[in-house]
Amino acid sequence: MSATPFRFVSTDRRVREDRRFVVGKGRFAADVALAGTRHVAVVTCPHPAARIIAIDKAEALAMPGVHYVLDGRELAAATQPLLAGLDTPKVPRRPLAVDVARYSGEWVAAVVADTRALAEDAAELVGVDYEPLPFVLDGEAAYAPGSPLVHADHGSNVLLDRTFVWGEVEQDFADSPHRLSLRVKWGRSSTVPVETFAVMASWDPWREVLDVFASVQMPRFPDQVALALKLPGSAVRVYNDVDVGGSYGVKRGIKHAVLVGYLSRRLGFPVRLIEDRLENMRAGDAHGPERNFDIEVAFDDAGVIRSMKMRALDNVGAYAGRSPFQLGKPVSAIVGPYRIRSVQYRAIAVTSNKTVQEAVRAFGQAPTNYAIERALEEVAWHRGLDRLEVRRRNLIRAEQFPYLIPSGTTYDSGDYHAVIDKVLAKADYAGLVAERDRLRGQGLLAGIGIAACLEPSGANSTFEPLLNPKNETTTYTEACRINVDVSGAVTATIHTLSAGQGHETLVGTVIGEVLEIDPDRIRVVRPDSLSSLPSQSPVGSRMAIMMGGAAFHAAQKLKDRIVAIAAHNLGIPSERATYGAGGVSDRAAPQSRLSWNELVTIAHRNFHRLPPGTEPGLAFTHVMQVPTGGQLPTADGRVQMYPCFAFEFHLILVAVDPDLGKPEIKRYFIGHDCGTVINPKIVRGMTMGGIAHGIGAALYEEFAYNEEGQLIAQSFMDYLLPSSHEVPPVEIVHHVTPSPHTVFGQKGSGESGYLGAPAAIASAINDAIRPLGIAVNSLPIRIAQLGDMIAAAREKMSPRMGSG
Amino acid sequence: MPVELNVNGQTRMVAVEPRTSLLDCLREDLLLTGAHAGCEHGVCGACTVLVDGAPMRSCLMFAVQADGYAITTIEGLSPGPGELSLIQDAFCETHGMQCGYCTPAMILTAHALLANNPAPTREDIVDAISGNICRCTGYAQIVEAIALAAERMRSLNRPAGTP
Fold first, then answer.
1. Domain span at residue B141?
2. Count of structural domains within chain A
3. Who among A499, A688, A717 is closest to B137 (CB)?
4. Which of B29, B30, B39, B126 to mutate to test the interface with A (most CBs of A within 10 A)?
């Protein structure tokens, strides 16, 4: 980074968490050992839909070392259904199926034994009689009348079907000389962390507390466990000092936690459930969006889009928690970085007999970005215009910020054209085009991929009231407490688990910046949930803004107190007291100075020297409201959703082997503007990781089902995660447009890269195959499918040549 | 059944079922929790340990099969309490990780690579870690860490692979 006005912020400092990980001393949920722990294995339904006729536990219970077999009826009688995001009371979700199982792999019973191996052996001995039921897998089929019903009591498979109209859509369509429509599909994939979900619960009947150690990333997790188990919130203690081995959204594990929490209370010993990979993929309830988009755009001769109609239908699987809200977040950036002045948006969520969906990195924004970018490219193609030029014409210009989009959100800041120019210069765009043409000359199909998109950041969860009128959430807090002890040491608290985002480094850096002391001297700890201030967990690219903001304000309160104590003791007005690196001096007489240790001693020990009315000690908290937040949506669904909008621009070169259909990413450039960067190493890593994940979603990863309703991607041999061979070197170009809403000008970056990589790859492959008169409109783009499409197109172009 | 394992230079006696994987034995019986379960079918590499210096999937090996071999886990690489090996320090310098779950296995794999190849090319590094899945980083800062470690080792003028 270039010179900044900061001491520590934006400087290339190490990440303090790394030291424990490189020596194998991370403390992951599976590393926590409690004496007397017993282990769970689950019995799963082999059918996509079936009535459970009978469960025979006798043989399993007769095995030595087996303690219990729990079925869904017993658990349901003792617990509340899990919390749903939408108002859908007839779609109850529980850890174990009750009478009807609704997807292949759904948990039907849980076996508790001395070891996991014994529990697995016993699970095979549990006999379940099933009566298979009709099932539906495809989202559009589930939406159509006459479909088998996943939840008969609900009366349909539709959880959400709402149409929003923002602006003069019909008028804009009527006034536009051109229009086109297309359908694009985003396939079912997920973040699939290397660590599966793990949870241990231990009930203490004398203290009446349930201790929970979980690899979790979930808003309101302790609260939801307590609700489901019918316990007061103060009876569930979740440990925040557990390291999470990757999440990127999906580590919710609410059903797992409720299950082991119940078992521990029922049986009187600690109970642990660690998913194996099959359980994780089939019934970890962690699949991502599976979405069809029907888009229609109206535009002028220059390719400037005036209006857009988008229908998004998401197949959320057999049950729903927060997942349908993933149709709501994109409302915050429904026009992407473009000046589209009116929008009709229809959001549909349907159930099907597939695995349950959960929050995935970007919470629905990456699929929406892909759809918008595909529409832009079609407009360019339709008008015979350059794709880059069409984007430039449609982009919001720097002087137009703050910019109000039709759905009610005002984008904070940006300079999209400047970022693009920087990337084009870095990539030598003309040279890149020449390289593409050279590859084409060698007989390869080659294409340049382009994607411009936004990362809404600083989640305030306004999609909750937007999609559920009974929900009036208008704040989404994060907090920090700073304590200076009598020795002068600074300890700060954070109140959630982390999954690699470097929150301890973030908080240390921010407080060090404010107090002008070495961040490495600031201890950062994670109290358990009963000792914690409000936190909504790291979702929606919010922690730089919200946790960083909370730490900043708490440190500012501390600094103000230090200054007040010093002014009182120096006998000068506060305005004359100058804070510097922990001490305070008199501006008019700099030799008159009190040191940090002297001021701390006064605060802790010398009440007689404190300004009148001052609390002794030095303990400060700040609970942060989301900047720009606080309003409910209007009746037509307009609301400020996220405070900050980061921008990214991808430019890539892809070559496709015309015989195999195998794409190879030759060059990858990204321009990234997330405002002020707090830690460059962390932001770069997130962006690189997001791109790798986006490459997976675009080319390799899919939870594919066969016609019998079985998930056929059940291992890492079928569900392909990009290895070091699949991820090319990426060149990042930084740009900084500070946000006016945050303490240092920072925006979020936790989902960067992933927001545009799939769109960029689709763009490149379409540029490569367009000369053959074909285009791909669904992700992932499978090699075999692409190879077949190319062969068929070539056959059509020159039938006698064959396809080789 | 009883097994005598040589782990990080120490002889450890354990009693395991024949079906117990080396990974489960290391984690549950020896409390060496730096080796992690990821897929338990030999693809992700999170369970990698060194067996006579070569990276192996401890999830695909039974504990009883490890009898007679020198096992090195991540716990065996740190020079002392609070200290980092050169490779571990290089991973910190480039931030070659995020969540830290695949990191011990990555470092052991890097250790084995650099013991045999003091001047690896980018391709050599990419090949060496291609059996270790990292979901966080996109690998860039891991590749940089290993290249940095190699460079520092060469400049130390010490035998390759010395931590």
1. 86-156
2. 4
3. A688
4. B39
Q: Report the alpha-carbon distance of residue A132 to residue A103 in Å, rounded.
A: 11
Candidates A24, A246, A723; nearest CB to B99: A246
Q: What are the C-alpha distances in Å from A327 to residues A295, A313, A489, A631, A636?
A: 15, 9, 46, 20, 16
CA distance linking residue A160 with residue A331, whole number of Å: 15
Give the distance, in angstroms, between the CA of residue A780 and the centroid of all CA atoms in the same chain: 19
Q: Are A24 and A258 in contact (CB under 8 A)?
A: no
| Total number of domains constituting chain B | 2
Supply the CATH number for residue A537's domain: 3.30.365.10
Strand arrangement, sheet containing B48-51? B10-15, B2-7, B70-72, B48-51, B54-57
pLDDT in tens, A678-716: 999 999 999 999 999 999 999 999 999 999 999 999 999
Instruction: Note whether B107 and B126 are same-domain residues.
Output: yes
CB contact under 8 A, A688 and B139: yes
Residue B108 within a domain: yes
Token pair of A793, please?
Answer: 């197109």
Lateral strand order in the sheet of A731-734: A445-457, A644-656, A663-673, A731-734
Return contacts of A75-81, CB within 8 angstroms, 24+ apart. A75/A259, A75/A262, A78/A230, A78/A262, A78/A266, A79/A228, A79/A229, A79/A230, A79/A258, A79/A262, A80/A227, A80/A228, A80/A229, A80/A230, A81/A228
Distance (Å, whole) CA A653 – CA A664: 9
Q: Which residues of B touch A17 (CB under 8 A)?
A: 100
The two tokens of residue A131 are: 């009566």
Q: Say whether both B9 and B72 belong to one domain.
A: yes
A305 phi/psi in degrees, rounded to 5: -85, 125
pLDDT in tens, A87-118: 999 999 999 999 999 999 999 999 999 999 99
B98 to chain A: closest CA residue? A500
Distance CA A639, CA A652 (A): 35
pLDDT reported for residue A134: 98
**pLDDT interval class at A800 (50, 70, 90):** low
pLDDT value at A508 more than 70: yes
Phi-psi region of A779 (alpha: psi -120 to 50; beta: other; left: phi over 0): beta
- Cα B63 from Cα B5, distance rounded (Å): 8
Across A704-738, b (16+ Cβ under 10 Å) vs e yields: bbeeebbbebbebeebbbbbbebbbebebbbbbbb
Among the candidates A592, A624, A656, a domain finishes at: A624
Q: Does residue A612 sit in the same domain as residue A484? A: yes
Q: What pLDDT is attached to residue B162?
A: 56
Q: Which residues pair with A287 in a beta bridge?
A: A357
Note whether A450 and A651 are within 8 A (CB): yes
Contacts of A500 in chain B (CB under 8 A): 97-100, 136
Which residue(s) pair with B56 in the sheet?
B49
Inspect the interface and report whether the beta carbons of B143 and A717 lie closer than 8 Å: no
For the record, the structure tokens of A355 come out as 């695995």
Q: Which two tokens stand for residue A385?
A: 């215009």
- Give me the pLDDT at residue A804, please: 39
Quick check: is A11 in a domain?
Answer: no
Report the C-alpha gap between A173 and A157 in whole angstroms.
32
Query: Quick one: pLDDT at residue A4?
Result: 72
Question: What does the pLDDT read at residue A6?
Answer: 97
Q: How far is A483 from chain B (nearest CA, A)?
A: 26
ipTM over 0.90: yes
pLDDT in tens, A294-318: 999 999 999 999 999 999 999 999 9
Domain boundary among the residues B17, B42, B76 is at B76
Is A717 close to B41, i.e. CB distance below 8 A?
A: yes
